Amino acid sequence: MRAGLGAGLGAGLGPDAEHRLELDRVTLKLGGRNLFAPLSLTIRGGRVAVLMGPSGSGKSSLLAHLCGTLDPAFDAAGRVVLDGADLAGLPPERRRVGILFQDDLLFPHMSVAENLAFGLPPAVWGRAGRRAVVERALEEADLAGFGGRDPATLSGGQRARVALLRTLLAEPAALLLDEPFGKLDAALRGRFRAWVFDHARRRGLPTLLVTHDPADAEEADGPVVDLGAAEPDTPTTRISGYVVKRA
Ligand SMILES: Nc1ncnc2c1ncn2[C@@H]1O[C@H](COP(=O)(O)OP(=O)(O)OP(=O)(O)O)[C@@H](O)[C@H]1O
């Protein structure tokens, strides 16, 4: 698979100016209790930060909070700022936060090309224009000719690439990854990870990766956070041991 996607997409989908994602003393409460200690973190454009921690420590919930899809059972506090703008109160579709899950969630009743076109912003005009952008994206991912295929007929690695492409075609300003490599075998995992990190870098996207795999943290070039490393009720002023690796 070829390394670059960003530069080849055209139609306003080239590499963006550098973005920046900031979390300022973010907490999530469930039933009146903090899930984790207040989290402050800055992710610069093109860097991959890593979120680790035990099962149930709140990793997926934190990503949902950043996307604007957190269940109302949670009580969130602190600020989430993307490119200088506070995301509080913004609906998911206006946040420009893209997310990729372990289960790629491609629509089974749509072809690969239709899945990709679904992610395109309305600014990409006309059926021919949209088809051209989708085809260029497929080529960049070594999937030329796969547009008409049913997603169920693709391999796990191919589906993962389509899912990432769909997320990127929506032109996010930040990228969240919830264990997207989990189901891939070891060899494919390393290649797909490099491919994803390369896209984040080329497009200047601040990226937050949830993972249980220490190898992912090794490869990442942003801060590494262990949500289990500090007592949830640690005062904000004493969380210096919380980020386990600084970029
Ligand atoms: N919609 C919800 N309503 C109520 N509680 C929830 C909801 N979603 C998650 N939780 C609870 O919030 C806590 C954090 O869950 P979350 O899925 O964020 O953890 P996680 O760190 O991502 O775990 P894992 O590593 O197992 O995926 C858990 O106790 C979970 O049961």
TrEMBL record:
Every copy of the ABC transporter domain together lies at: 21-246
Answer whether the UniProt record assigns the keyword ATP-binding to this protein: yes
Specify the species. Answer: Skermanella cutis
Q: Sorted alphabetically, which Gene3D superfamilies does this protein's record hold? A: P-loop containing nucleotide triphosphate hydrolases
The transmembrane residues are none
MF terms (GO), sorted A to Z: ATP binding
Q: Which UniProt keywords apply?
A: ATP-binding, Nucleotide-binding, Transport
Keyword set includes Transport: yes
Name a Pfam family for this protein.
ABC_tran
Top-level lineage group: Bacteria
* Name recorded for this polypeptide: ATP-binding cassette domain-containing protein
